[in-house]
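Changelog-adjacent note: as of this version, every example in the card shows the full chain rather than a window. The one below runs 162 residues end to end.
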Amino acid sequence: MEMKYTVLENGLDFVLNSINNLTIASEDTTDEYAKKRLIKYSLLHLSSGIELILKSRLLKEHWTYVFADMNKAKKELLVSGNFQSVDNDTLFTRLENLCSIKIKQNDVLTLKNLRNRRNRAEHFDFNESILSVESSIHKSISILIKFLVVNYDVDDFSNDEG
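Full-length structure tokens:
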């Protein structure tokens, strides 16, 4: 069996996992320790999923746009995945400037806040209220849904993605 995902499929899979963890965490039978872990992984996976979905939109526009340094873009590197991809801040700039996709400033701030939380949760000490993290997750999912509706057609999704 082979594991094969497009960038969009991979992003959507992360988002689905995030939503699944969030759903389980909200069940009355979930103990506090399990809830904290589920929310943490919901945060991590949602942030990764959103980043991949936004990058997939750059990729849809032109494959060089996903490279941190577009001057070093080579098809072989893209296929191998052996390159530095665009950072989060540049990602939003390229979506606007190269793809004519304007994301509201409040939404960009919400998604950057999610990314900052994810970085702290993955790399540093993390101490935030569960409600605050859940709120950030819910807002980010809402923004992502709007982004998908406006910037993708049904034909962009394979049978596995739809």
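Structural remarks: Helices lie at 7-25, 32-61, 75-80, 88-99, 105-123, 130-151.
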